[in-house]
Amino acid sequence: MASPINLFFTFLTIATTFSLLIISPSTASDPDILSDFILPPNVTNPNASFFTSTSFRALLQPSNLTTFNAIKATMAEFPALNGQSVSLAALRFPSATANPPHTHPRAAELLFIVSGALEVGFVDTTNKLFTRTLRAGDMFVFPKGLVHFQYNAWEEAALAISSFGSANAGLVSLPATLFGTEIDDEVLAKGFKTDVDTVRALKAGLATKH
Ligand SMILES: *[C@@H]1O[C@H](CO)[C@@H](O)[C@H](O)[C@H]1NC(C)=O
Ligand SMILES: *[C@@H]1O[C@H](CO)[C@@H](O)[C@H](O)[C@H]1NC(C)=O
Ligand SMILES: *[C@@H]1O[C@H](CO)[C@@H](O)[C@H](O)[C@H]1NC(C)=O
């Protein structure tokens, strides 16, 4: 019998099913854990030290960096993050340095500029480039899995803090992935519509330069 109440519940069931179907693929994330936290095998009785990292204190020291540098705080460096779906990275850019095009397969990245300025950008799956110049106090989000970069084109050094929605966002750096591995020179030459000598020059440059 199709009473208004029954129709309403039928509608509710259909709507719920649809929203689950629609939402499920986009909720792919670190697995939910069934305990408060996850301990590595060599930690049995944790205290607050286990949940503390002091690695970013290095940022407070004067630095003489000449190349782009990242201090990561992922579950590899900070085991208490395992299962908590968060991580950070401190990105330091001396003048005229870049974090080359790369992706994080498992998380979006929210970048906050602490000091200096950065040109940032990402490319979506239609190959549209979204780029912007950011200065201290600004934030930018790099959607999950998309190729992105940051570049300090200025004389002043820049510092940015990036947060990730994964304890292990992963890094695929395009130069290293493409020209720092054993992918056949012929495959790369065809892929980039160039010749093997050019591919070898790119590989050699990547192997020797920072
Ligand atoms: C546990 O092992 C890791 C990796 O070997 C090490 O870095 C860490 O200091 C160890 N923790 C303790 C409390 O021994
Ligand atoms: C906390 O645990 C660590 C590693 O097990 C130990 O070195 C440290 O002394 C402990 N701290 C306190 C306040 O108990
Ligand atoms: C930077 O400073 C540290 C110590 O403050 C020193 O060990 C290191 O050699 C310096 N690096 C460069 C490139 O000058």
TrEMBL record:
CC per GO annotation: apoplast
MF terms in GO: manganese ion binding
Database matches in CDD domains: cupin_OxOx
Localization in the cell: Secreted, Extracellular space, Apoplast
Gene3D superfamilies associated with the record: Jelly Rolls
Chain positions recorded as Mn(2+) binding sites: H102, H104, E109, H148
Keywords, ordered alphabetically: Apoplast, Glycoprotein, Manganese, Metal-binding, Secreted, Signal
Signal peptide: 1-28
Sites where the protein binds oxalate: N99, H104, E109
Domain Cupin type-1: 57-200
Pfam families: Cupin_1 (PF00190)
Family: Belongs to the germin family.
Protein purpose: May play a role in plant defense. Probably has no oxalate oxidase activity even if the active site is conserved.
Quaternary data: Oligomer (believed to be a pentamer but probably hexamer).
Protein name: Germin-like protein
Protein source organism: Linum trigynum
